[in-house]
Design goal:
222 residues; 6 helices; Rossmann fold; alpha/beta; 3-stranded antiparallel β-sheet
Length: 222
């Protein structure tokens, strides 16, 4: 179903994609993350795609309950995710793996997955790339599949920087940060049936001053 070759030609001229490999040389594990937002929608026999799996924080808990495949544009992240899967040595009849791939050109056939998890990924793409990514996600989803998406919202404390597009900034490390509105997400997902759109807002204090973290979660189907 998948081609495990690194998508080098797909990344030519995309320095903000290549920047992730350097970033993951310094990112620590941080522990597994909750997959509860997905669990009520899928069966134990489901095949899940974890897009932008990083070092495996979602992929590891997914592998304990489902058949799961992770992809990430960073070969370093993929190698670390594989290592965590091996070290976990989960007693399960499920299968899990990961490979290096650009989200804008997925190496999977049509109608492959029962669910797709895409947490904190689309926010690191430019506008045309976000549209390409959604097109690829639609292509590899089964007709009744579930899509779970989380992105930064425009009310987030980190909003701002060197502007490259509307609500889109580039950091010194070369990574893109885009901040979404609910209307923008609804437009981007206009061919999906949106089951839930929820603002995830929390407050963090830095030097005694409150700052807002803002993310938006969407659960959708085709």
């Amino acid at each position: 179903m998948a081609n495990n070759s690194f998508p080098g030609k797909d990344l030519q001229g995309k320095s903000h994609f290549l920047a992730w490999d350097e970033e993951y040389k310094h990112v620590t594990w941080g522990g597994p993350r909750s997959i509860s937002m997905l669990e009520g929608f899928i069966s134990s026999s489901s095949l899940i795609l974890d897009l932008g799996c990083g070092n495996g924080r979602f992929l590891l808990p997914l592998s304990r309950k489902y058949n799961a495949i992770g992809t990430d544009v960073s070969a370093t992240a993929v190698q670390r995710a594989r290592e965590y899967l091996i070290k976990s040595n989960v007693e399960s009849d499920k299968r899990a793996g990961c490979l290096a791939s650009s989200i804008t050109s997925l190496p999977f056939s049509e109608n492959s997955f029962d669910a797709i998890l895409c947490i904190g990924v689309l926010q690191h793409l430019l506008e045309d790339e976000r549209k390409q990514a959604i097109s690829e996600i639609k292509r590899v989803m089964k007709s009744d599949a579930i899509f779970v998406l989380e992105v930064f919202g425009t009310e987030d404390m980190r909003y701002g920087g060197e502007s490259v597009e509307k609500d889109t900034f580039i950091r010194k490390n070369g990574i893109i940060y885009h901040y979404f509105t609910r209307n923008e997400l609804a437009s981007l997902l206009d061919e999906f049936d949106i089951l839930e759109m929820k603002d995830l807002v929390s407050e963090k204090k830095f030097h005694g001053e409150p700052h807002r973290r803002h993310q938006i979660r969407v659960i959708a189907s085709l």
